[in-house]
Amino acid sequence: MMKKIIEYFNSTVKEMKLMSWPSKPEVWGSTKIVIGLSLVLTAFIFFSDQILNWLIGYFIN
Question: What are phi and psi of 20, to 5 degrees?
Fold first, then answer.
């Protein structure tokens, strides 16, 4: 049983070495895009909520 587990992990490490990993600048670029888009989406949802809240309050009162 232990031999199969060791073989599994060895094959996993071997396969990971064959993969093409992104460079550090590529990762940072993608990270900046994700953070930027998250901030834009957060701002959009916040302002949409504020406007809808104001409109509903205006029509109810």
Answer: -100, 110
DSSP letters spanning 11-59: HHHHHHHHS-PPPHHHHHHHHHHHHHHHHHHHHHHHHHHHHHHHHHHHH
pTM of the model: 0.65
Q: Where are the domains positioned within the chain?
A: 26-61
Task: Determine phi and psi for 51, rounding to 5 degrees.
Answer: -65, -45
Per-residue pLDDT tens for 11-42?
A: 999 999 999 999 999 999 999 999 999 999 99
Rounded to an integer, what distance in angstroms lies between the CA atom of residue 42 and that of residue 61?
Answer: 28
Question: In angstroms, what CA-CA distances link 38 with 16, 18, 34, 43?
Answer: 30, 32, 6, 9
